[in-house]
Amino acid sequence: MSSYFADFASLFQQFDVAAAFWVNIKLTFFAAIGSMVLGSVLALMRISPIASLRWMGAAYVNTIRNTPLTIILVFLVLGVWSQLQINLSADFNQNFFRYAVIGLTVYHAAFVCEAIRSGVNTVPVGQAEAARAIGLGFLPSARMIIFPQALRGAITPLGNTLIALTKNTTVAAAASVTEISALMKTMIEFRPDVIIAVFLTVAVGFVLIVVPVGLLTTWASRKFAVVR
């Protein structure tokens, strides 16, 4: 047993596990920001009084949500980068990292949009009517009245989307990004003698990342809940 633990400890000398997890964390951070921005725009389109914007927002959400994330990432790498020769960075690895962030952003923005729209549905109709009554247009009323309340009501689904995004960063291996799932494959290939420990290490690592997000989401949803 002590020999097995010694072999397991040698993994961290042979492979940089912490650096691989750090790549997943960075992917989550940048994609979360991008998804929030794009998802908010899509949510505005979906509740817009302009029919064409509502149609475009709905078309984006329905199309992207039913497209596997792997397909989106492979399209960006093999289609946009390989065929169109569009480089986002002079650094080879950084180039694929940015494509992975874009793919994760495009995919999860659809879920952020629906999370925000679910929050909008919790805002009483009278709020929007009162905004129109005092002369506010659609964008000012959405920015100052509807969205602040909607975001408070959407904390839980947004937290769930962030957790899903964190776990989905492992798909970035399809975009040639060396994150923890890619490193896990390498560790299993070269160190099959400690394969169970490799799986447990990756599993525990994601638990340590995801559980605090879930706890923070639960606390925030209770703290900022809209009292009716």
From TrEMBL:
Family: Belongs to the binding-protein-dependent transport system permease family. HisMQ subfamily.
GO CC annotation: ATP-binding cassette (ABC) transporter complex
Single GO molecular function: transmembrane transporter activity
InterPro entries, alphabetized: AA_ABC_transptr_permease_3TM, ArtM/GltK/GlnP/TcyL/YhdX-like, MetI-like, MetI-like_sf
UniProt-annotated location(s): Cell membrane
Pfam families noted in UniProt: BPD_transp_1 (PF00528)
Record's keyword terms, sorted: Amino-acid transport, Cell membrane, Membrane, Transmembrane, Transmembrane helix, Transport
Organism: Kocuria soli
ABC transmembrane type-1 domain boundaries: 21-217
Any one Gene Ontology BP term: amino acid transport
Recorded topology in the membrane: Multi-pass membrane protein
Superkingdom of the source species: Bacteria
Keyword Nucleus: no
Name of the protein: Amino acid ABC transporter permease
Positions of transmembrane segments: 20-45, 66-84, 96-116, 194-220
Stored CDD domains: TM_PBP2
